[in-house]
Predict the structure.
Amino acid sequence: MPESAAPQAWLEFPDGRMHWLDQNACTIGRIPSNTLALDQPGLSRSHAMIQPTPGGGWLLTDLRSTNGTYHNGLRLEQGATLRDGDKIELGDTTLTFRCQQNANAAPEAGATSVQIHSGDCWLLMLDLIGHTAHTHAVGAETASADFKRWLELVRPGLVRSGGTINAYLGDALFAYWRQDRHPAAKVAAALQELVAFQATAPRPFRIILHHGRIRISGGLQGESLVGADVIFLFRMEKSTKPLGATCVLSEAAAKSLDLTGAARALGAHPVPSFEGNHAFYALGN
């Protein structure tokens, strides 16, 4: 038996499809007997395998494929430990490995990271409401199935709008839009779509949106977002829970999307470690 269960993990296709991984080994290849069968040129009959490890991680290995398996651009010579956001290339197919991370662990850029971008972004957090209580009430298996269904429904809209999902933090999702690439109207439309989805979602969730300046770095350990505004978003999520709103915008986010008139004012409130009180707005309930 594994010492600890691997976190929920899945593979993402470029077209938005998802393949969920479980606690069994997942073989990938061209023939139907594989866990993930992909009838595509360049793949061997049994090409690669992803399996959980005793320590609670995930291991990628090549199954002596003809064209090789590539991990973040490098051909595998031995097994490689997978991290959230890693790219897996199999022939002409590129998959992204994603997994839930410890919500209390702040992502850090590796020593080999390089700055990709510095500028204004919209920062988004989607946080499931009462996930721990729900898990206790229905059991881990049902709660996991509910999480999967929620993510399968919420993710496509973010991808269509050009949003980049940076991390899955336990029962929360952290994403962003770069202002130099996406107009405010497009982000506002994506936000309204999320608010509308709240009414029919399989699990209730909060929407937290902030606008600020960040630095984006990339390296072997994936993409990292840093800056005071990233910290503000995370602390804003916790400090605004008592306000009872399910979609909360910082003043900077509301102004940047021209929503101060349409949104409901929630007043000004303190945010830990940030001086003074800060105005917040709500959309929907």
Q: What stands out?
A: The first strand starts at residue 9 and ends at 12.
